[in-house]
Recover the amino acids of this structure.
């Protein structure tokens, strides 16, 4: 049912239950706020979005007050602005004055608000709580002093991701974000970084490794290779004023070359290799019954960590295939090094990822050093790369487009859609159907598993057989899928699915924890659209048709799941003990 | 230190409360009353048994002043910081205790002798400022009498 009201004299008609904040946005009125995020339910913590409603003699929070029929709302008048200003000044009074050296400088929602309010003098004393900094994950840096207790990270960690690593401890003025009585590294944290992507200030940021990367580049005795993940190309532009979803692959290659990297590779190539390995694994299980179904994808390190911590009983269902960037890493230090006559001991591989958890993944087990050296030396987020491009004085917008380097760069459309939820499954189905039928089938698009619905299920006809698939993204959506699998196992029933894809972040990697700030579902959709558009444009849209991948198998790996593939491209999982969520 | 031996005991406590609304806090009350604090390993067991995230248990335990995460001392000294006591000089009493015992609020001395805490109004404002020593309410306490109080606690053992 529609509700009618007036906001600043402008008539609005919105569905019943719409909050004043959202209704105002529909008539181009932007009410300032610090705690409300479009992904999350209102916490009503900051008190900045207050508005006046005729007939009510106190101000109401626009984020959590639904519009009622006939309401007359005022969002901006001198008195409201003055109250908001006071609230901002109170927040500032316990926030460190460290903007110049803060990881969120020029990207901070609090800083932006203070600038918009034009606050030039501060009447209140600055009393910053004395709280220790946590960076023992070496993935995320938490500085609770900079926390404004908006509650976004806690909601993200507990509700969106179902991890329950972060919580609010203590109360009132002393409220702080922390893990339950331990450091973040000792908590069940899976390093997805969604907390950092949602934090309005610099309280949670990625563990910065740009300095380490510059050191590699600067060192003339080292050969430093770099690779970019699928979803980085459609998001990095946001740091340079492009709309979300703009595909900047060619400019990225050019920028990386100018920064001084010796070889520019593409993780999409690794994604194609992943599909050959994982697709073959699937066929082995599906047709030859080599192991139990369903097969579950393992490209996402936060998901791997989550599974190892909370679903140890599902280890046998996990694809043992490494994630695409680890594949490029190990192939750079073996296959490529051999071809180029390079000493792998003198090589460094840098991954540019939409992800914070990849910083953990590169050290997660001994198989991450299958080349005899650590396969990937540093994993940077999209945000860190954007800073490095700016530090290098590169006029990114006007860069000409360039190509990446052979032989770890060519990619298919299947490789590029890895960055969106459903993309890994779609890529795998494209290859599986061809391998099963022995034909090059025309059908390449599986639209039922695209999009932002939390759990997507489909039945796909492949070579006369029905393949039941499920795709989940956002870790809170995984539980129902896995419970169905566990239930069927206990009863001895046919598994509900044959193949399951999981990505930890909502939207998949396009919405990754290391992507540019300001993510919403519109942004996730636009970034995904950028990937699907590239897929449509590419002549080769199936991983097994990628000529460089074919060459890799012909010259080096022999065939998927060969002894050499197992040695280099596969890994093992172990249950990791942690306390209950 | 409570250990695995008391698991059946805890599961009885939890059984009693598990299917009732707001039951976590009741179970935590029992634990606090029994041990004088909520030991971490007990919290971990409650989390398992009640299917509540440890994060939620810590949110509750740290929100309410009543729950402690540290074991109590052999002597427990509580300084009231309610409005009346505060105005009558409670902060000076707290400072005197902190410097004499060498601990901060909420801490126990390394030898386990004294646990110091502040509390909000204990309900006898007429006697302000008040210190509660091992359950006994001491009225109109002066900083100069703190030394004697500590001495007396030592002797009483």
């Amino acid at each position: 049912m529609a509700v009618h009201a007036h906001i600043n004299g402008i008539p609005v008609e919105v569905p019943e239950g719409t909050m004043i904040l959202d209704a105002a946005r529909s008539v181009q009125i932007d009410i300032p706020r610090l705690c409300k995020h479009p992904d999350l339910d209102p916490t009503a913590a900051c008190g900045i979005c207050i508005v006046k409603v005729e007939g009510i003699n106190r101000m109401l929070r626009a984020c959590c007050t639904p519009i009622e029929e006939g309401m007359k709302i005022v969002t901006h008048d001198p008195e409201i602005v003055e109250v908001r200003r006071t609230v901002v000044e109170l927040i500032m009074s316990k926030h460190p004055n460290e903007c110049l050296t803060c990881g969120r400088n020029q990207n901070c929602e609090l800083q932006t608000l203070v600038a918009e309010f034009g606050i030039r003098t501060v009447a209140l004393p600055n009393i910053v709580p004395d709280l220790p900094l946590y960076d023992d994950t070496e993935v995320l840096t938490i500085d609770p002093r900079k926390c404004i207790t908006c509650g976004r990270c806690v909601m993200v960690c507990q509700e969106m991701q179902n991890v329950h690593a972060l919580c609010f401890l203590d109360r009132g003025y002393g409220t702080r974000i922390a893990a339950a009585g331990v450091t973040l590294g000792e908590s069940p944290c899976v390093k997805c970084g969604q907390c950092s992507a949602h934090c309005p200030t610099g309280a949670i940021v990625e563990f910065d490794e740009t300095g380490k990367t510059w050191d590699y580049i600067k060192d003339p005795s080292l050969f430093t290779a770099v690779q970019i993940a699928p979803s980085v190309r459609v998001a990095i532009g946001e740091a340079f004023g492009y709309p979300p979803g703009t595909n900047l692959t060619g400019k990225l290659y050019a920028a990386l070359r100018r920064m001084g990297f010796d070889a520019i590779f593409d993780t999409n190539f690794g994604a194609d290799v992943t599909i050959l390995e994982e697709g073959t694994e699937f066929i082995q299980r599906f047709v030859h019954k080599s192991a139990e179904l369903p097969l579950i994808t393992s490209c996402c390190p936060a998901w791997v960590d989550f599974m190892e911590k909370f679903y140890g009983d599902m280890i046998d269902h996990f694809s043992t295939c490494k994630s695409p960037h680890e594949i490029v890493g190990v192939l750079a230090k073996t296959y490529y090094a051999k071809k180029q006559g390079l000493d792998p001991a003198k090589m460094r591989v840098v991954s540019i990822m939409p992800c914070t958890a990849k910083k953990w993944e590169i050290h997660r087990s001994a198989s991450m050093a299958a080349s005899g050296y650590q396969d990937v030396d540093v994993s940077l987020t999209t945000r860190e790369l954007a800073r490095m491009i700016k530090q290098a004085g590169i006029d990114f917008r006007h860069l000409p487009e360039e190509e990446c380097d052979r032989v770890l760069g060519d990619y298919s459309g299947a490789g590029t859609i890895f960055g969106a939820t459903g993309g890994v499954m779609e890529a795998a189905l494209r290859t599986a159907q061809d391998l099963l039928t022995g034909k090059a089938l025309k059908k390449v698009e599986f639209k039922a598993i695209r999009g932002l619905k939390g759990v997507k299920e489909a039945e796909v006809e492949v070579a006369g057989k029905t393949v039941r698939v499920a795709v989940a993204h956002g870790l809170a959506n995984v539980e129902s899928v896995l419970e169905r699998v566990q239930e069927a196992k206990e009863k001895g029933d046919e598994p509900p699915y044959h193949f399951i894809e999981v990505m930890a972040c909502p939207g998949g990697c396009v919405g990754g924890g290391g992507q540019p700030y300001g993510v919403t579902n519109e942004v996730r959709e636009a970034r995904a659209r950028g990937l699907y558009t590239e897929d449509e444009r590419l002549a080769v849209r199936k991983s097994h048709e990628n000529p460089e991948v074919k060459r890799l198998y012909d010259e080096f790996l022999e065939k998927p799941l060969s002894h050499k593939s197992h040695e280099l491209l596969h890994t093992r999982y172990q249950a990791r003990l942690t306390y209950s969520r | 230190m409570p250990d695995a031996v008391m698991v059946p005991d805890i599961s009885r406590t939890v059984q009693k409360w598990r299917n009732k609304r707001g039951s976590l806090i009741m179970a935590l009350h029992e634990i606090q009353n029994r041990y004088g604090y909520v030991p971490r390993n007990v919290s971990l067991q409650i989390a398992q048994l009640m299917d509540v995230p440890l994060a939620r248990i810590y949110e509750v335990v740290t929100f309410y002043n009543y729950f402690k995460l540290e074991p109590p001392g052999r002597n427990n000294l509580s300084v009231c910081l309610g409005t009346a006591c505060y105005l009558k000089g409670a902060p000076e009493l707290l400072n005197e205790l902190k410097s004499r015992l060498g601990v901060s609020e909420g801490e126990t001395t390394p030898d386990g002798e004294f646990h110091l805490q502040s509390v909000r109004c204990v309900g006898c404002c007429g006697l302000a400022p008040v210190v509660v020593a091992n359950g006994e309410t001491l009225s109109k306490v002066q900083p100069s009498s703190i030394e004697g109080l500590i001495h007396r606690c030592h002797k009483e053992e």
